[in-house]
Amino acid sequence: MTRPRFPLLKTLQVNLRSLKPPPPHLRWDFDDAIKLQYLRAGLGTPTNLSVNWANLVYLQTVVRSGLNQPIGILGTILDEFRLSLSSLSLCVSLRTLDCNLIGSFPVENLQPTIYLRHLENLKITSDNFTCARFLSYLNTPSLKKADFNLSYFNLVLDGVESWTSAFLNLSERSSFNLSEIFIQSVGRQNSYNDEFVDMLRQLAHTSSIELLTLLSAPPDRSPLPGRMMELLTVDPNLSQEDQKEHLPYLTSFWYRGVVSFPIKLIIAMVESRIKLQEKGDCKRAGHFLGPRGEASSLLASALLNALPPLHFDVTYTNPNWIDEQDPQDVQYLGGLLEKISSSERKCRLAPLEESLMRAYGFRDDLFDWGV
Question: Would the pTM count as exceeding 0.85?
């Protein structure tokens, strides 16, 4: 019996910066690395890389497909490794998938053939239409975090599903409970349009979204729609079911990009969150139990209304926007944000210049400063 060559190997990261591919006779066979769980197949990864896909819990790679290439065949493009959809379907233990989509995925006869039962974190770097096609292959019942880095340079394609629609379909067939959404977009089209807001509204009925981050990179000049602020504005008098549409469990909202809506919409959103939390505080004061200690009829609505503080940060990239607002509204909002900000709640509205360092690059520090 042959002894494994890599019995203790747990992590493999390949990143070859040489323009020349490695010799074809060089073996990249890690099938007998029985403990290998973390794989980063980066630039220059040889095409003959082989691992036990079923053991992986973390995978960072490039997924390529072409309209004229059979799905599920490993091939060579510029002598680099690409992960086939069939190999991806073998990753039955995967918890994190970080993939860069390159090429065109067929749109005919799309079926959700890739069942990733344990996948909790999904990150996709792609253009918006390729992302939509790739999502149509997936089924991810355990998904918790979705991270999209999307480019919007393509024109509208007739008959091609948008990525927001594809993600809603993924949610419907997977029945996951999403808690975090991170989106960074670049392009000249409207990234965070009304269709995007409608996607969040529908997701809120089945997911308890807690963290929402929306970043726009130049040359994106499309503003965040006022409907986004209206979505986050919760009327305490609404029914429990209607409140779900307004992301009541949200604890962190960060937006960086163009703002064009009136500042009054931000004021209304912040005030509504304060009132809703105060209403929850009153119900927590002792109205949960009946005379025999049983849960009262107020319990369900009280749990919904007992919201944690919302960390709120809007970094606007059009500095003249604030000059176009009513000075009294600006002063009132500034005082309101200062009043409610504390060690538990940090609320902030600022132009890009004051947060340039954080806005460009320090993603690991994204949430630990209160955003």
Answer: no
